[in-house]
């Protein structure tokens, strides 16, 4: 099967796609023939959408329906990072973290699923993190890990509930991804410490995650749902 043919005529929404990992995921889908809507909270984005704002999501979905006839694939990539010790994240930062990382996924799923059900098919890919399994501790902290654990639980349950409607839901749990933002935040010492815990000896590249997202949304994985795939170079096995 030619992977390029899998996405011909299919419509993909990638959240948090203004830069970094989201932009790479959007680009990969476009390369494989999909019509891609790359949304971001940044006002300069082609599709401005705030995953924490249901009205904003509603407007974006209406535009996609009007222009493309509906959505086939949703990639919930938008997210915020929290690191440092537990008391480094105050109540306001916690509320914002949950609003984007967890409620944002809920909001986008609730907005996307009705049209997918009417069409009798769909694929949702959620970007989690290895932090879900360790309660933080790679780079994100305990609160970040908590939100990503919620995404994994949501993925399992939605895979079960939406399967009968032809909608598959899976997640990706990357180790630390070498995005521009992460590269700016990581000291050389912290980078060496993290890499030392990864059997394959490097951070995840954006494309490691992007290619996995393409696979999970493609017909090649059409009997996989409710799963979380670690893209971590073996981190969770150490």
Short structural description:
By secondary structure, the protein is α/β, with parallel strands linked by helices. 45% of the residues lie in helices and 14% in strands. The N terminus is likely disordered.
Written account of the structure:
The protein has a single domain (3-228), classed as NAD(P)-binding Rossmann-like Domain (Rossmann fold), CATH 3.40.50. It is an alpha/beta fold. The chain has nine helices and seven strands. 45% of the residues lie in helices and 14% in strands. The protein has helices at residues 20-31, 54-68, 91-101, 103-119, 131-134, 142-162, 180-185, 188-195, 206-217; strands spanning 11-14, 35-40, 47-48, 73-76, 122-127, 167-174, 228-231. Helix 1 crosses helix 9 (206-217) and helix 2 (54-68) runs parallel beside helix 4 (103-119).
Q: Topology of this protein?
A:
Elements: E1 11-14, H1 20-31, E2 35-40, E3 47-48, H2 54-68, E4 73-76, H3 91-101, H4 103-119, E5 122-127, H5 131-134, H6 142-162, E6 167-174, H7 180-185, H8 188-195, H9 206-217, E7 228-231
Parallel strand pairs: 1-2, 1-4, 2-3, 4-5, 5-6, 6-7
């Amino acid at each position: 099967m030619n992977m390029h043919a899998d996405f011909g005529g299919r419509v993909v929404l990638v959240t948090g796609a203004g830069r970094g990992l989201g932009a790479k995921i959007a680009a990969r889908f476009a390369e494989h023939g999909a019509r891609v809507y790359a949304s971001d909270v940044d006002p300069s984005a082609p599709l401005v959408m705030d995953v924490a704002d249901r009205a904003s999501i509603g407007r974006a979905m209406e535009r996609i329906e009007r222009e493309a006839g509906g959505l086939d694939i949703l990639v919930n990539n938008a997210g915020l990072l929290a690191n440092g010790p537990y008391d480094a994240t105050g109540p306001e930062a916690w509320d914002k973290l949950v609003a984007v990382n967890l409620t944002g996924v809920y909001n986008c799923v609730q907005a996307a699923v009705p049209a997918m059900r009417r069409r009798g098919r769909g694929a949702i890919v959620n970007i989690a993190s290895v932090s879900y399994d360790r309660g933080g501790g790679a780079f994100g902290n305990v609160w970040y890990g908590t939100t990503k654990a919620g995404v994994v639980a949501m993925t399992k349950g939605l895979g079960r509930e939406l399967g009968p409607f032809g909608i598959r839901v899976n997640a990706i749990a990357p180790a630390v991804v070498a995005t521009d933002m992460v590269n700016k935040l990581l000291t050389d010492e912290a980078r060496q410490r993290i890499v030392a815990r990864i059997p394959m000896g490097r951070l995840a590249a954006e494309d490691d995650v992007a290619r996995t997202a393409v696979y999970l949304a493609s017909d090649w994985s059409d009997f996989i749902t409710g799963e979380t795939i670690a893209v971590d170079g073996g981190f969770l096995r150490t």
